[in-house]
Amino acid sequence: MFENLSDRLDSVFKKLKGHGRLTEKNIEDGLKEVRIALLEADVHYKVVKKFIGDIKERALGQEVMRSLTPGQQVIKIVNDELSALMGSTHEELDLSGPIPIPLMLVGLQGSGKTTTAGKLAILLRKKGRKPYLVPADVYRPAAIEQLQKLGEQLQVPVFPSESRHDPVKICRDAVTAAHKAGCDTVILDTAGRLHVDEALMDELCRIKDAVHPSDILLVADAMTGQDAVNIAKAFNDMLDIGGVILTKMDGDARGGAALSIKAVIRKPIKFIGVGEKLNQLEPFHPDRMASSILGMGDVLTFIEKAQSVVDEEKAAELEKKLRKSQFTLEDFRDQMIQIRKMGSLTQLLHMIPGFSKNKQLKDLEVDERELVRIEAIINSMTPQERHQYTIINGSRRKRIADGSGTSVQDVNRLLKNYTQVMKMIKKINKGGIRGIGKGVLPF
């Protein structure tokens, strides 16, 4: 996401940093290119105009002109203004009010509301809440069945809606049913509708009046760019939404919607969908996103992802093993599993500062199937082989390859990589480096 914009801004800043001292003309030339980059990213033209004006006012001030590193100072200003443009800080869901608390998802058909309802249920459950899913889309074929299957998959209760019922009655009855089921948060998955369809928009207003949701979330497709902003404005005018969830952010190389929505409707983006998997809904942090756009990475999100999958007791046990050079193939496999839980390796690598600026690394696509192969190979070994890799001779390698659906060459490559890791661990132990093993190892 934001790939095109990041590339253009990086080019602009390289030129600015090439000047020992900045002049008004240098800055204006740079901002002209920034303006073009933002417009090409499909950012709303009024937003671009104000954004450039705010940067110019600060950039021509004393904090830049008297700075020893003016180019870097301009980058800092752009980073600050980008963050402010998107809302500065993450805004949580509004979960105030009497239990069960209704949350209402609205948006166009095809924006990903039903899948987002399931993803939201996972996030809420991680926070200790008991979600209750409500299929209120009686118009789209199989919409109710889709959410019921999601509920079964996630082991989250789902209200038994029927397609012939009135959506307003479904939502009202569902809140009562959630209370009886001991659930504290009701997620209302409403039907997709065009913002110009007065009858269906009126239906949303009646649902709002019936259940008084604590938060109304517009689910919008990030890839629609300017249309997403116009849609957000229409829904906000009608419903006074509490925030936006942008889906398909992983497929949007421009990012115009994310950069425009907050400035246009004065409502925050609360979450972004970064993939199709049910665990790929993330809180939207404007400050971190701004750093990522400018190629500074997103270390905080990387750390949070690592912390979410790390078992503290296992980490402490692993540290002891590493100190004694007792890191087995079974430990190797467990670390692989933890890394896969953190999400796409390509996305994780782009969170590392400077990664996206490296031309050789930027286009690197990690083959996720390689981790699956490694896990299959280790699973095909006996417990003894996992703990004593030196006993794995030719015939054992053939058996392991056959059992894992891989080749002997794949098994040999894994064992070679493992032995190299073990050599590195022994060198580190001899060098006395402390703290290794805390968290997920970068294997």
What characterizes the major β-sheet?
A: 7 strands, mixed
Shape: flat
Overall pLDDT metric: 77
Give the strand order of the largest sheet, numbering strands 1, 2, ... along the chain: 2-3-1-4-5-6-7
CATH fold category name of the largest domain: Rossmann fold
CATH-defined superfamily of the largest domain: P-loop containing nucleotide triphosphate hydrolases
Describe this structure in words.
This protein is of the alpha/beta class. It has 3 domains: 3-85, SRP54, nucleotide-binding domain (Four Helix Bundle (Hemerythrin (Met), subunit A), Up-down Bundle), CATH 1.20.120.140; 101-296, P-loop containing nucleotide triphosphate hydrolases (Rossmann fold, 3-Layer(aba) Sandwich); 302-431, 434 Repressor (Amino-terminal Domain) (Orthogonal Bundle), CATH 1.10.260. Helices cover 56% and strands 9% of the residues. It contains 21 helices and 7 strands. It has helices at 3-17, 24-40, 45-59, 62-65, 70-85, 113-126, 143-154, 167-180, 198-211, 226-239, 256-265, 286-293, 299-309, 312-323, 329-341, 345-349, 359-362, 368-379, 383-387, 394-404, 408-431; strands at residues 101-106, 131-136, 185-190, 215-221, 243-247, 269-273, 281-283. Strands 2-3-1-4-5-6-7 form a 7-stranded mixed beta sheet, sandwiched between helices. Strand 5 (243-247), helix 11 (256-265) and strand 6 (269-273) form a beta-alpha-beta unit. The protein is flat, with a radius of gyration of 26 Å.
